[in-house]
Amino acid sequence: MLRVHLEKGRVEVRPCPRPRPPAGFALIRLRVGGICNTDLELLRGYYNFRGTPGHEFVGEVVTAQQSELVGKRVVGEINLSCGRCQWCRRGLGRHCPHRKVLGIAGQPGAFSEYFTLPEANLHVLPENIPDEEAVFTEPLAAACEILEQVAFPPGAEVAVLGDGKLGLLVAQVLHLHGLKVTLFGRHAHKLAIAEQAGIGIKLASRPPQDRYEWVIEATGSAQGLRQALQTVQPRGTVIVKSTLHKAVPLDTAAFVVNEITLIGSRCGRFEVALNLLAQGRLRLREMITAEYPLADAPRAFRAAAGKQALKILLRAAAS
Question: Domain residues for 228?
Answer without folding.
Answer: 140-264
